[in-house]
């Protein structure tokens, strides 16, 4: 049974009167679609919405029409038991599914091309195999794809015997192998880190390398690592930190201008408080830096962004969430105030978050490049944790790293034991970025605040739950059209999906 709700709002702030409409279509759910279910929104194909669902060893894809009626649910019977880490690369009329499963001590990485009806277009092909020790983590393969989705890289990383061993497989969008490479270097897992693995539209593989002087220190050395698609070597480009320290590094590819954008909070002293943002731009064509700029965050902005506490600590819980590149090479950066409080232990701090020694299992390294995934509530955790997600800091930065304007979107969110209903998502539409986040404790009202390219903030009418009991998870949503987004919902103990047309 379909549910379609249309909300009409009259805005009286200016003349003439304008009319704003939101259309919300909510899917039904199977009884099996409980909160223990893992899911991923694959995307829109031939006007239908495809969603992958998994409970234990059961794998299936639900196909919804434009009104979110269920057309068909296809069971993926060909997927073996002990299958995990299923990744999807979607196109207008087909998608590629990459999955790995374990049989004995052997990991098998497979790929299969499927059509918009979730039917196999060919038989699954084995991409790679790896023998792993008995006590080793079995999550080692990662799938990433370029912005235009014409290049796909599947890579695996193993860290044993103080070595960083990475193998990369570059494919086109028909899964035809272009190149295969390996990187083997000395590695100290307590002081060195590789992160931000991305692939450009030209097939270049790029990531960051950071080094700390001591365990749990801030990084005092940072490099950009680049491998061209048809070259075997990985080239390091050292970034001048000017005797400053950094921790969380975010890399973004500007495919239009053929540049790499690096942003990170910086410190003037090791394990001090955040002073500002370092923006570093590398010009790939010229093979040299295009811009490097340290921007100190001034007190008035600290005061506006502060959620409580002393002013000099105001930015210490902010983490970079998203970077949106503009046509001229500049970009919009969004950072969020995030912290946790675990009863019986010390409160969350930035160093625990970034340098948790249990975040990587010894011997293997799994990287999740795509933000936003559902974490089923675990009943095995005896500790009580409260999650806080507060203000959003939005900065507009020019192509040369100069701060153009800054805005703060105020919010205060917390929840106990789970964080799926917290944080925010964005919808890019024309000249504006919409920031969507729950604005009530029952998660039934979503605030929609748009920021234009010149920094103008527009507060749009809120998006409300179609009826009592539906709880939105905007941080796990996915944009599927110029003015369309799919938002997961919880209704009692079940998971469903809302399509919102703005």
Number of separate helices: 2
Task: Extract low-pLDDT stretches.
Answer: 1-19, 356-363
What is the CA-CA span between the terminal residues?
23 Å
Oligomer: single chain
In percent terms, what proportion of residues is strand? over 45%
What share of the residues lie within helices? Answer: under 10%
Structural class: mainly beta
- Largest beta sheet, briefly? 6 strands, antiparallel
- Globular, elongated, flat, extended or rod-shaped: what is the shape? globular
Radius of gyration: 23 Å
| Count of extended strands | 36
Mean of all residue-level pLDDT scores: 88
Detail the topology: elements first, then pairings:
Blueprint: E1 3-11, E2 18-26, E3 38-45, E4 48-55, E5 58-64, E6 70-75, E7 83-90, E8 94-103, E9 106-115, E10 125-131, E11 141-145, E12 151-160, E13 163-172, E14 177-186, E15 192-199, E16 205-212, E17 219-227, E18 235-239, E19 245-254, E20 259-267, E21 276-283, E22 288-296, H1 299-305, E23 318-325, E24 331-342, H2 350-354, E25 363-365, E26 385-397, E27 403-409, E28 413-416, E29 425-429, E30 432-438, E31 445-452, E32 457-464, E33 470-472, E34 478-481, E35 484-491, E36 494-501
Antiparallel strand pairs: 1-2, 2-36, 3-4, 4-5, 5-6, 7-8, 8-9, 9-10, 11-12, 12-13, 12-25, 13-14, 15-16, 16-17, 17-18, 19-20, 20-21, 21-22, 23-24, 24-26, 26-27, 26-28, 29-30, 30-31, 31-32, 33-35, 34-35, 35-36
